[in-house]
Structures are given as structure tokens and as C-alpha cells.
Specification:
This protein has 245 residues and is of the alpha/beta class. The protein has helices spanning 3-6, 26-40, 56-66, 83-93, 103-119, 136-145, 164-170, 176-180, 193-206, 217-227, 231-244; strands spanning 45-50, 71-76, 123-128, 157-162, 182-188.
Length: 245
Amino acid sequence: MYTQFYGFKEKPFKLTPDPDFFYHSPVHRQALAHLTYGLEDKQGFIVLTGEIGAGKTTVIQVLLNNLKDTTKVARINNTKVTSLQLLEMIVQDFGLKIQGSSKTELLDGLNRFLLEQHALGNYALLIVDEAQNFSTSLLEEIRLLSNLETGKEKLVQIILSGQPELGYKLRSPQLRQLAQRITISFHMTGLDRKETEGYINYRLQVAGSQNRALFTPKAIDQIAEFSKGIPRMINIICDAALLTG
């Protein structure tokens, strides 16, 4: 562990998504702004894409931390499931205990819950991570959930988060009905050289570093080049550099 050697309070380049280390680069600010606007304006379907390690999970975590208690959240990470298992996971993650195990009973119970939340002035949010791994049929099941509405507005808002392949999949003819319901879509790109330097320095500062020159300009040039500005790759490279000295 090198934290004591460098005088850090904690490791600055951990791979876990920690909102305390959220760096407000232009692309991260825009991603968060798109998600926030989509939820506040009750836009229904919102899509967030980006390469592995681009920061999608961190942005979503910051979004969740900013939400009020009136927003009830279900988050799905397992994409290798049947349509019934998907519905069961959604119901469970909303904290519901529904009598019966058929798809119809689960949908009826979910609809009652959403109507109750709406009557209380609450909101429901469903987040699907790694959505590019969903089959076309499962994405259609997600679309059908958006049919749960009051007549004036949707009862549940849905964020689909995934790698760039998700965007390609959503443009397929089989999913044109789902694509038509997507009102907010944002793709996260990598950081440029200047942003990479800012990202590195910010994480060092949050970790308690008193030395702003741990990484030379030449080192940052190389980190930016090899990482292609992807935050997770920047973290891996910087962590290894600090470990080896």
C-alpha cells in the first residue's frame, strides 16, 4: 500500500465508482445534465452509452445521490434472464412482495405500486445497466413497461445504460417502437489531454495529496495517449505508476 508513502488519505485511483471522486469534466457534466433533465421533465426513456470505463456508472451514482427520497429506484444488473425473471427482479428491487408468481400477477402488482406512488407524489425510476447485453425480446419487455401510465404521464422512467453496442442495437428495425420512445440520449466520449490532466490532479487532491507534480507533463501525455481518455484506464495506469514509483 503506497498511501502512507505519498501522504494520501486513501487511494486516489480506485476502480470502484466513488461519487466523492466525481470529476466534472465537460462530458461528465453533460451526461449528468442530460439524465437530470430527462428525469425532471419525465421524459420516459433515457439512454446513456459509452465505452467500458467511460464513467457511466459513476454518473448514475451521482445522479442517484442527488435524487430526493420521493424517487423510488430499481436497478437491474443481471441481463442474462428470462422475461419472467426480469419482471421478478424489478418487483423485488422496488421492495415489493406480490402474491402469486405469474407474469400477469407481477405486472398487476407493479402497476398498483406505481399508481400508489404517483398518488403520493412520488416517482419511480428503473435503471438497466449493461443493457447492450439484453436480447431484443427483453428490450421489448422493458418497452412494454413504459405502457404503465396515468393517461397524462408515465408511471415509471427508465434509464438504459450500456456500451456503444446498445446504440447500434436500438437502431435495429426490430426495436423501432422502443427507439421512438427514447427522448434523451447521450454518448460519453473519452477525455482529451487537458481534461486527463485535470482528472488526475483532481483525484490526487481529493485523496489528500499535497504534491501537484507527482505526474510530469510528459507522463500525462503518455497516460492520455495510452488510456484514450477513458477514466478507468487512466486509473489503472496511474495506480500502477504510483505503486512502482
